[in-house]
Design goal:
The complex is a heterotrimer of chains A (about 200), B (about 450) and C (about 850). By secondary structure, chain A is of the alpha+beta class. Chain A has two domains: about 70 residues, NADH-quinone oxidoreductase subunit E (Arc Repressor Mutant, subunit A, Orthogonal Bundle); about 80 residues, Glutaredoxin (3-Layer(aba) Sandwich), CATH 3.40.30. Chain A is about 40% helix and about 10% strand. Chain A has eight helices and four strands. By secondary structure, chain B is α/β, with parallel strands linked by helices. Chain B has 18 helices and eight strands. In chain B, the strands form two sheets. In chain B, strands 3-2-1-4 form a four-stranded parallel sheet, with helices on both faces. Chain B has a four-stranded mixed sheet with strand order 6-5-8-7, with no helix packed on it. In chain B, helix 7 links the parallel strand 2 and strand 3. Chain B is globular, with a radius of gyration of 23 Å. Chain C has about 850 residues and is α/β, with parallel strands linked by helices. Chain C has five domains: about 100 residues, Ubiquitin-like (UB roll) (Roll); about 140 residues, 2-Layer Sandwich (Alpha-Beta Plaits), CATH 3.30.70; about 230 residues, Rossmann fold; about 140 residues, Dimethylsulfoxide Reductase, domain 2 (3-Layer(aba) Sandwich); about 100 residues, Beta Barrel (Barwin-like endoglucanases), CATH 2.40.40. Chain C is about 25% helix and about 20% strand. Chain C is built from 26 helices and 39 strands. Chain C starts with 9 loop residues before the first strand and ends in a 5-residue tail after the last strand. Classes of the chains: A alpha+beta (about 200), B alpha/beta (about 450), C alpha/beta (about 850). Chains in contact: A-B, A-C, B-C. Chains A and B meet through helix 2, helix 5 and helix 8 of A and helix 7, strand 3, strand 5, strand 8 and helix 14 of B.
């Protein structure tokens, strides 16, 4: 199933309601679709287009701009090996080479069991922990060849359960209790906020 | 003088990211204090603090806030948490380890400026950071620090956690706004130069970096004057620097702004501990991948914005990348250029085509197909992206991304041209070959 | 005293060392152009917002703070600005950008359609480097891919200037082509399996600065240097200005001409690609007569056979000799040039003495509405902060370039559109208010809107909605655009509505017509009771009596009465001047019976339409590409139509045919050229005054006829009673599609397949009430009439209404029309399947 399922549709509507304009929810909804299907399908993009009132082409335009959205299958575990300058200086290319030989696939390919794919990525903000990588956006710091192989074993044996399957990003979502919500600041709302009124701002 | 830790005080506290831990360590005192003051008094404290933006450009936050046009509503706050400049590693830690401090900074800022909604844009790849912010927001909403009638007052504002999805250029503030509107993250045309006048949904918008906003609670709690006493006259408070690369103890350090020197940070035992393996320093990047490189002779420059600017580079995003004498300069140069080439949004011709061409030429040199004329070609292409190859760079583009690719080439060629020539002298074939690749479908 | 707002503020700037005075705030690139300094550009297009992407137009600018590099499309001129477009630095940067653009641009100019008219090629030839410094492989994409039925995209040639994507999104609101991927891999494309289904797609071919977008109809047909071109007018209601391009007497391409007053360079696909129809193999190229055998005329023969002009015309003149003028009638003429219209009117009313002349086919607003209201131009409508009320159908379907202008006005000029259309339309999402009164109720809704006397509900609109819309009418500049939005609604409620809006101070109108030159037809007297120049038969006879020998004695019948008379055997000769009442007249059976029962039916046409097929004599006419003359648009704007190619076979301009018939009847119309018509007409027309002959006029905005009031609008005396729709019924809307079974669309290879099949469209709510599957065929009844048609969900249709488009393949909604009703209610029986 490629369109958003009922539960995700409910979440999608909640996400949309937080923004003054529907289209702002586009990226969060693409994440939601990717979480559901492991990738972003054309059907999901069409569904999202309906939800935020744009054309599917506009959804694709946005979706294809961002690296995290995969429109072709990746492994259950997508390994992003950082090759930013700090990691480069400390052996990122060796990690990449090792990944290729250890997994037996080239960058961008998926292992036969569908479990793994890897690619070199730009800086992931863990520069003092170089060389580092992310598996489904979970950090592994100061990685060497042995640790890499251990990581693969753990993932293959499903003993590293803190890492979700590809698509799931954060395990916690923001939830705004209905009675606590200030509500989106509508673009048409043109009056001075109430807490400034007292004090005559400016 | 020992200085207080302003932004990183809870990094060592196990539960500093929870509401309980935050409150126990003095959290939300700034907000309480702010709500006792009028919004303009809060704004005044920040102006007095002379807080410089911590995102890269170093523009004074209080002045940026002052660009809001009077009587245009609603106004929005957008938090730039899209940290992705190579070598930069601070905002992620602030997000993961002290999310409430950031949230408190956001809420106070909204109060001070009459901003009706806040969007906290966290880089997509920071899954853990998103979880921490979501948890913190959920707690803060329940306890009334965010949302409707904050702490029982008539001040209400939602802080919405927004996920990015992987694009460096979104760190540029107008691209960030485009992205938040659900569009391709391509920088907007200037003017207007500041989104403060026309920003999100065409409305006045303040875009501030995570570290900038994380300073706000302390400033409001302790006063702008106290903050301004720390650091140098023009560069007040503390700043977080990440020192990475070929140092003994790479790390992220909060230091007094403007007085600490590069030597302190790179060589100091309490900081990065010096060059690894007894090697010597070859070069270092003082402020993120866009910055022109510094060398041995620049070590004693203080971490002060104007001094570094005058020395021909920038402090940028607080990213210091150290290269020792084992570094292959051509490879390092190629690495940084490749970054900009891959992260170009594709809007402006010189950046879209030029950075990719530079990468291809460097690729060729590294792969043994270099030609002597390639060095001049590299410089001429740089010159066409950023005429004059000067610092600060002239631009033929809307945003500085394209010209940023020029710095590493200009720096590397200026000091280590011989390394390029060495590669070229080993070329397997003097005649250029057409390399395959690049088919998109 | 002069009005200060009319003074144009000027500033003085120095461009390349020359001091020039330009409009304050003008965009620098335009200011330079008007000063004769051309700055190269690719992304900049003056009819779209600036994006500053290509960076080609960068020049050195000094505004007093030192010289800096600035894209001239992004700067507004200011006093004292110093611009250097030729400096060494400017040249270096521009050469650099050009080199960057060429890195990945293929060297296929010899096989590229754009070659010879390509800005990139021109720039490269003029300033480009002799050889490339780029030794790497270029970007590769699959070579041209179709993005819709008519347009191909070659992504390798694309320089990512954002013109096509901007046009799609910003100008016409069809964002179906997009930038996809990022950086150096960026491409323009559609969503998979979702073509660029826009009515305006041909424009992106015209504005593409390279050969990335090509039109199927023109691909590999010609080289620009082989083309000859002429500026003309497309004879549609807006009178869109065009450039007709031909080679070897074949029209190969129509391009939009940028006229400030009308179409801004844009064209709808229907008009752009329709030139194919006029060159189709089905074009009539010789006269036809009803015959029994090979080329043998025979009244009552089974089919049409080819004839000589002499043979065909003799049948026509025989039927007219000594005929009672009251037994001769003329229908049609609304698509012709003003000159041909005048010639036919002169034949009918000046020679034959009949006033049974009507260009209307029962689907236009009455002549007193079209001529009697204070009129406004499109540009007057679009002034900032105006309110425009739309009493119209979907302008995107029927009036493409007006849709574009109004969309721009709403989006960029702060114009408030108050839409009162039967369904949601292409402008709904930019309208300040979008309301959809029940057909038949528009008069009551308008009354409430104008007076502010707000009922709880009227015509399906709530009081709250009325009150909201009423606010927008408190504007001192209210304009009303009105057309016959559905032939399922009589003109009475529309006239009621106009009567209400007339009560607003200064309210002005833009009444729209269905057929291209209906306005011209009225001004040329092709309506009962009218003579050219808005003279009436009663008051204007003296104006023409010296040159028109046999003016009619009394006012003639209207279209419906003419057809009724013909059906009753009271018409001996019926002329159909480019008219097809069987396809167009609301009462199809009356039209058919009229043609069958008229004595001699003479069709003057381009194609064998259903009505032509039933005629006795068929005279082949020349199309607008083959004649000289002029056109009058809905504003009253007169622009030239110019001949570019030769008419096929022996077909002739209409004015010549009319003149010839008169001559054979012993009368000289004194018309040997269109200019003769013009001179005679303007000498007698108070409204045309001293206009010179338009053929020689080079103003792209043409001449505007402003005189109004000679033919007064007849306000309604009493409003129609409200008639709610009962809960078992639905109110019928008969709409028009851009692409339908109209002759021109069907005769154009590029357009033919774009017409859909007939469907009954209702919204989701009503659909669920019926409890059937989409696509089910249902029986639709109205009184004792019925049709069967498939159902489609369309949420643009309001509740309790049903929309069927006219003139599509399949069910004909005219079958549901009921003589004398102001609106039509239908019942849908989902259980009766056809």
């Amino acid at each position: 199933m490629s369109r958003l399922n009922e539960e995700n549709l409910r979440i999608a509507r909640q996400i949309i309601s937080a923004y003054p304009k529907k289209k702002s929810a586009l990226i969060p909804l693409l994440h939601l679709a990717q979480e559901q299907n492991g990738l972003v399908t054309n059907e999901a993009m069409t569904h999202i287009a309906e939800l935020v009132d744009v054309t599917p082409a506009e959804v694709l335009g946005t979706c294809s701009f961002y690296e995290m959205f995969k429109r072709h299958p990746v492994g259950e575990y997508q390994i992003n090996i950082c090759h930013g300058i700090s990691c480069h200086l400390l052996g990122a290319e060796d990690v990449l080479e090792h990944a290729e030989s250890s997994l037996g696939v080239k960058e961008g390919e998926i292992t036969q069991d569908g479990k793994f794919s890897f690619e070199g990525v730009e800086c992931i903000a863990a520069c003092t922990e170089a060389p580092c990588l992310q598996v489904n956006y979970r950090y592994i710091n100061k990685v060497n060849a042995d640790e890499f192989d251990q990581l693969i074993d753990d993932l293959r044996n499903e003993t590293k359960t803190e890492i979700p399957k590809h698509g799931t990003l954060a395990n916690t979502r923001q939830k705004i209790p209905a009675n606590k919500a200030a509500g989106p600041a509508q673009v048409e709302e043109s009056s001075r906020p109430i807490w400034l009124k007292r004090n005559k701002e400016e | 003088m020992t200085i207080p830790l302003i932004t990183t005080s809870r990094w060592g506290i196990e539960d500093g990211h929870t509401l309980e831990g935050y409150l126990r360590t003095g959290g939300y005192q700034g907000l309480h204090r702010a709500l006792e003051m009028s919004p303009e008094e809060v704004h005044e404290e920040v102006k007095q603090a002379s807080l410089l933006g911590r995102g890269g450009a170093g523009f004074p936050a209080g002045i940026k806030w002052g660009f809001l046009p009077p009587d245009v509503w609603p106004r929005y706050l957008v938090v730039n948490g899209d940290e992705s400049e190579p070598g930069t590693y601070k905002d992620r830690l602030l997000i993961e380890r002290d999310p409430h401090q950031l949230i408190e900074g956001c809420v106070i800022t909204c109060y001070a400026l009459g901003l009706s909604q806040c969007f906290l844009y966290v880089r997509g790849e920071m899954a853990h950071g998103q979880e921490r912010v979501a948890q913190a927001l959920n707690e803060a909403y329940i306890k009334g620090y965010v949302g409707k009638n904050i702490l029982g007052t008539e001040f209400s504002v939602d802080v919405i956690l927004h996920w990015g999805a992987g694009a460096y250029i979104v760190g540029e503030e107008t691209a960030l706004i485009e992205s938040l509107e659900g569009n391709r993250g391509m920088p907007r045309l200037k003017p207007p130069y500041f989104p403060a006048s026309i920003g999100l949904y065409g409305k006045p918008t303040i875009v501030n970096n995570v570290e900038t906003l994380s300073n706000i609670p302390w400033i409001v709690e302790h006063g702008g004057e106290a903050f301004a006493k720390i650091g140098a006259e023009q560069s007040t408070g503390t700043r977080i620097f990440a020192v990475s690369g070929h140092v003994k103890t790479p790390g992220v350090f909060e230091v007094e702004f403007g007085t600490t020197t590069f030597r302190d940070l790179i060589m100091g035992e309490q900081y990065a501990g010096g060059i690894r393996d007894g090697n010597s320093l070859k070069a270092f990047i003082p402020g993120g991948a866009s910055a022109p490189w510094f060398y041995e002779e620049h070590l004693d420059i203080p971490l002060e914005k104007s001094v570094v600017d005058n020395a021909g580079s920038m402090l940028g995003s607080g990213a210091i990348v150290v290269m020792d004498d084992t570094t292959d300069i051509v490879k390092a140069c190629h690495n940084v250029v490749r970054f900009f080439s891959r992260e170009s949004c594709g809007k402006c011709t010189p950046c879209r085509e030029g950075t990719n061409w530079l990468e291809k030429i460097l690729d060729r040199i590294l792969n043994g197909y270099g030609r002597l004329e390639d060095i001049d070609l590299l410089l001429d292409v740089c010159d066409n992206i950023s005429p004059g190859i000067s610092w600060p760079p002239k631009q033929t583009t809307i945003c500085p991304l394209g010209p940023s690719a020029v710095s590493p080439i200009a720096s590397a060629l200026e000091r280590y041209r011989s390394e390029f020539e060495a590669y070229i002298s080993l070329s397997v074939d003097a005649t250029p070959v057409v390399l395959t690749g690049g088919a998109h479908e | 005293m002069s009005n200060p707002s009319e003074e144009i503020d000027e500033v003085s700037v120095i461009i390349d060392g020359q001091e020039v005075h330009v409009k304050a705030g003008e965009i620098l690139i335009d200011a330079c152009e008007s000063a004769g300094v051309d700055i190269p550009r690719f992304c900049y297009h003056k009819r779209m917002s600036q994006v500053g992407m290509c960076r080609m137009c960068i020049v050195e600018v000094d505004t007093g703070r030192g010289s800096s590099l600035q894209p001239s499309c992004m700067m507004n001129v200011s006093e004292g600005m110093v611009v250097d477009t030729q400096s060494e630095l400017t040249k270096k940067v521009q050469d650099g950008v050009l080199e960057f653009l060429l890195l990945n641009h293929p060297l296929d100019c010899p096989v590229c359609d754009k070659g010879g008219e390509c800005p990139l090629q021109d720039q490269t030839m003029a300033y480009g480097p002799g050889e490339t410094r780029f030794v790497e492989e270029k970007r590769h994409f699959e070579k041209p891919i179709p993005i819709n039925e008519n347009v191909f995209l070659d992504r390798e040639r694309c320089i990512l200037c954002d013109r096509c994507t901007r046009f799609a999104d910003e100008v016409v609101g069809d964002p179906l082509i997009q930038f996809i991927d990022r950086g150096n891999s960026t491409q323009v494309n559609t969503f998979p399996e979702d073509p660029f289904a826009s009515y305006f797609s041909g424009n992106i071919v015209q504005i593409c600065p390279v050969g990335a977008l090509t039109a199927k109809s023109y691909r590999f047909k010609a080289r620009p240097w082989d083309l000859e071109e002429i500026e003309s007018t497309y004879p549609n209601p807006l009178g869109d200005r065009i450039v007709v391009q031909s080679s070897r007497d074949q029209v190969l391409r129509l391009q939009g001409l940028d006229s400030e007053a009308v179409n801004w360079g844009w064209l709808s696909d229907k008009d752009r690609f329709s030139f194919e129809a006029f060159q189709s193999e089905y074009r009539l190229d010789s006269p036809l007569v009803r015959g029994g055998g090979l080329n043998k005329a025979e009244k009552g023969g089974a089919g049409l056979v080819a004839s000589s002009w002499a043979g065909a015309l003799s049948i026509v003149t025989d039927s007219l000799k000594d005929v009672n003028p009251d037994r001769v009638a003329f229908l049609g003429g609304a698509r012709l040039t003003n000159e041909s219209q005048y010639a036919w009117t002169k034949l009918a009313k000046g020679v034959l003495g009949t006033d049974h002349v009507s260009a209307d086919l029962g689907d236009e607003l009455p002549a007193h509405v079209l001529l009697g209201l204070p009129r406004a131009t499109i540009s007057e409508l679009c002034q900032p902060n105006n309110t425009i009320v739309l009493l119209t159908s979907d302008l995107k379907e029927e009036y493409g370039t007006l849709f574009i202008r109004l969309r721009h006005a709403a989006k960029a000029q702060g114009v408030n559109i108050v839409e009162l259309s039967p369904t949601r339309t292409g402008l709904s999402n930019v309208a300040a208010v979008s309301l959809h009164p029940l057909p038949g109720e528009i008069g009551n809704v308008a009354e409430a809107l104008v007076t502010g006397d707000i009922p709880r509900e009227v015509g399906g609109i709530t009081g709250e909605e009325i009150a909201n819309a009423h606010e927008y009418l408190q504007n001192s500049n209210v304009f009303v655009v009105v057309n016959r939005s559905s032939i399922g609604q009589s003109t009475t409620p529309i006239i009621d509505a106009i009567t209400s809006f007339q009560k607003l101070d200064n309210c002005r109108f833009l009444p729209l017509v269905r057929r291209g030159n209906t306005m011209g037809a009225l001004d040329m007297g092709m309506s009962p009771g009218l003579l050219p120049g808005r003279n009436t038969l009663s008051s204007g006879s003296a104006v023409f009596s010296d040159i028109w020998p046999n003016l009619p004695a009394k006012e003639g019948a209207d279209t419906k009465q003419i057809l009724q008379n013909a059906a009753d055997g009271k018409i001996d000769t019926l002329f159909l001047i480019g008219a097809d009442p069987i396809s167009d007249f609301p009462d199809r059976s009356l039209a058919k019976s009229a043609i069958q029962n008229a004595g001699t039916v003479v069709s003057v046409d381009l194609f064998v339409t259903p009505s032509v097929y039933e005629s006795d004599v068929v005279l082949p006419a020349a199309s607008f590409l083959e004649v000289n003359g002029s056109h009058t648009n809905v504003e009253g704007r007169i622009t030239p139509i110019r001949q570019k190619v030769t008419a096929p076979g022996t077909s002739r301009p209409d004015w010549m045919i009319a003149s010839e018939i008169a001559y054979l009847l012993g009368h000289n119309l004194n018309i040997d050229t269109p200019e003769d018509v013009w001179n005679e007409m303007t000498s007698r027309s108070a409204v045309h005054g001293n206009l010179g002959y338009p053929h020689f006029d080079n103003d792209q905005n043409g001449h505007l006829i402003t005189a109004t009031g000679r033919i007064p609008f007849l306000p309604s005396q009493e409003r129609l009673e409200s008639r709610p729709v009962d809960s078992y019924a639905m109110r019928l809307i008969i709409g028009k599609r851009m692409f339908d079974h109209g002759t021109i669309t069907q005769m154009s290879a590029s357009l033919r397949s774009l017409a859909e099949a007939s469907q009954l469209r209702i919204n989701q709510y009503d659909f669920e009430r019926l409890g059937i599957d989409e696509g089910t065929k249902v029986q639709v009844t109205s009184g004792d009439r019925d049709i069967s048609v498939t159902v489609k969900i369309d949420d643009r249709v309001p509740r309790s209404c049903a929309l069927i488009y006219a003139n599509l393949d399949g069910a004909d909604p005219r079958e549901l029309l009921n003589e004398g009703s102001h609106s039509i209610d239908i019942r849908i029986d989902p259980t009766v399947r056809a």
